[in-house]
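User: what does the whole thing look like in 3D?
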Amino acid sequence: MGTDPTDTAAPRATPDEAAGDLSPWSTRPDPEAERRAKRMAVLRSAARQFNEKGFRATSMDDVATALQVTKPTIYHYFASKDEILFECVRLGLSQIREGTTGAAERGGTGLERMQAMVHAYALSMTHDFGICVSRTGDAELSPESRAKFRALKREIDDIVREIIEAGIEDGSMRSEDPKIATFLVAGAINWIARWYRPDGARTREEIADFAVQHLTRALAA
Amino acid sequence: MGTDPTDTAAPRATPDEAAGDLSPWSTRPDPEAERRAKRMAVLRSAARQFNEKGFRATSMDDVATALQVTKPTIYHYFASKDEILFECVRLGLSQIREGTTGAAERGGTGLERMQAMVHAYALSMTHDFGICVSRTGDAELSPESRAKFRALKREIDDIVREIIEAGIEDGSMRSEDPKIATFLVAGAINWIARWYRPDGARTREEIADFAVQHLTRALAA
DNA sequence: ACGCGACCTTACCCGCGGGTATACTGGCGA
DNA sequence: TCGCCAGTATACCCGCGGGTAAGGTCGCGT
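Assistant: Here's the predicted 3D structure for the full assembly of 442 residues, as structure tokens:
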């Protein structure tokens, strides 16, 4: 049993000093990178099932069995179902934010930045966590998570609105009500998550490109 | 008790013949109109709560107590929670369909019909049952209801797409992919249900008017 | 060697909520 | 005056699912 010398690992060099844990030697199977990888696997699997069956209709047993483990294993990595959902939408929102802020900070006219922004945003809506953002209603989160969720979504809306306002200011765009225009644009993009299918007639990129074309036409001066 | 002659009704004329039940005399408190009114009250109350808290988070007790009755009373009028949700979305969808088909069948260019269609559709998304349509995911319905729900939604999409295609044909509109354009337009409109608040800065009509202006600009030739 | 701690299991708890069995009431027709 | 039926209530059932208690195993550092 325990006496079997399964010496599968590489030569274990005795760390000549307490050189921290950065040494590429040390323990082979990684300290906590594995933990993060497992957390990530849980989130991916959960997000996919949430998107398919809905959050409430997906039980923790569903999440666990999809990963071939049992429920308490999941709870070893996450405190609650709410935390899992929140992490999913947080990941989705940070991906969207990276894309949209990247577009906002690049050079060019407002219209050009808008084009880059729509492209990045639309692409995000075809990936698991982005879909999760669109499909998750405020009601499914705990009050605290809901507050953070709303704040993060609001950030995205603000970025979009600021780009539109900048475009109006520099004359490359026009709209009588940038606030409502923002909601309509965001709605068209968010809704992609509801109908996009990976095996559909169009690729992600084609959809994103078309969304850019269609949505900017409504605002171009 | 029962001897109290509460003769609140109009003079009860003895029906001189078995003249059916169409006579405006006959029994005062109506035969089944009241039943329909009560069913409708249940649906209204349920829809509002579904929109506010979400379908799964709204219990049948919630629906009942909001109407100052108890659960079995609700089940006297509806067979299941699923039926209630389905009736809500059916009402919402038929309202949308009336508006959009009305627009499709009126005269004028494709663009003009599109304007009328967007206006009616957007208006529907600011009313209880329309909001219900937008917020209800396929996953919350039973398999049978889900199939019907999808078929009805598909009808709406078809109407929108046909208007767009007609507009392209008559030269009043242009788009490289009417199918995806339909989804983007429908998405922008459906999403209204997610952010519209009756006490917001804009009235329903203002929002609908602006949606017309914004969304048709993306497709006008 | 030994024990400790990370990890994963089996087995369980318990509240919530959809739905029901049953019984009471009041009004209408005969 | 009797019974029937629509309508409503009280009290209950029970399965589902989030979350936990407690124990086993493996691999590491000492």
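In plain terms: Confidence is low (pLDDT under 50) at residues 1-28 of chain A. The domain at 88-217 of chain A is CATH 1.10.357.10 (Tetracycline Repressor; domain 2).
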